[in-house]
Amino acid sequence: MREPRRLLCPYCGHEVGAKGRAQHAKKHLRAGAEKTDAEWKPVAPPQRQWKLGSYMDLPQEFFVCRTNTWEGTPFEPMTFPGSRAGAAAAHFTPEDFAAFPGWYVAEGHVQLYPEGNSVRQTICIAQKQGEKYEHIAMLLDRIGVKYVRTGHSLRFRQKNLARWLQQNCGVGSHNKRVPEIIKEAPQPVIRDFLEANRQGDGARHTHPESARYITSSKALADDLHEPLVKMGRARKMRLMHAKGSQGVLNGRTFTRHHDVWCVTEAGRPADSNVKKANVRRIPRKGPVYCVITPNETLMVRRNGVPFWCGNTPSCW
């Protein structure tokens, strides 16, 4: 947690900068003052009142809302029945159903094996043995499937679940995406999905609660931005490595066959301040369209940076 920038003095009750509190306290001690409160208390951040307005009417410096709440659409526990009599069904709580696609989108695939007149479908979650490996194993135990451990993956057969994953999560690492049911889910379910996906294909960033999500799927990068926006934590999406560029892994050089994208999650919700002095006008020729939404707001993105916009009739 970051130290608050301003504190309330326990002697006089005035606001004091966090870095100057020691010097401020010395003045009271020299004067023999007594505390009226037991400790220094952080000053609560100001509560901003948001409203839509024309850019021309805004002051020279203002804030753009980048935080928000999202209720989403709850869903009930889900079951994928076995494909034949006696075959095990997969039972998911909403939390487990969020975490499993998170791991699958990051590290999973469906392998197809010809078997007589049919095709056997095996779900594989790649992960080297360790804490994350055991975390996935416990998740599979909870959903009730029989799985096989290998040195670098966990595998199991569940035909109906495999079909759902291929239809809703994409086929191939560069075609992965976030299922619509997850994007429309409540914030706690979205958080479970994001946490699993980060453990598979992401990393913690500079702030303890910040994260980076890395993928070769442009569709997945776009999809990750949407739930992060709904969590109030979306930051920039950028091209990390271009197709055809080279990298080094375990001392071996390789060539990337797809673009690699990075989506950043903010460590804590925060709005952005804008100075009109830094804003420039860009000439445009041709039609300009205005989107109408029920709440007269929409999320837009420019140069990989998302923010809420009031580009609707109420602002004109």
What's a quick, concise take on this entry?
The longest helix has 15 residues, at 187-201.
Describe the structure using short key phrases.
single chain, 316 residues, alpha+beta, 4-stranded antiparallel β-sheet, 7 helices, 25% helix, 28% strand, globular
Question: What do you see in this structure?
Answer:
This protein has 316 residues and is an alpha+beta fold. The protein contains seven helices and 19 strands. The chain has helices at 21-30, 94-107, 131-143, 159-169, 180-183, 187-201, 218-230, and strands at residues 6-8, 15-17, 41-42, 61-64, 78-80, 90-92, 108-115, 118-126, 147-149, 153-157, 202-204, 211-215, 234-241, 246-249, 252-255, 260-265, 272-275, 298-302, 305-309. The longest helix has 15 residues, at 187-201. The chain is globular and about 90 Å long. The mean pLDDT is 85.
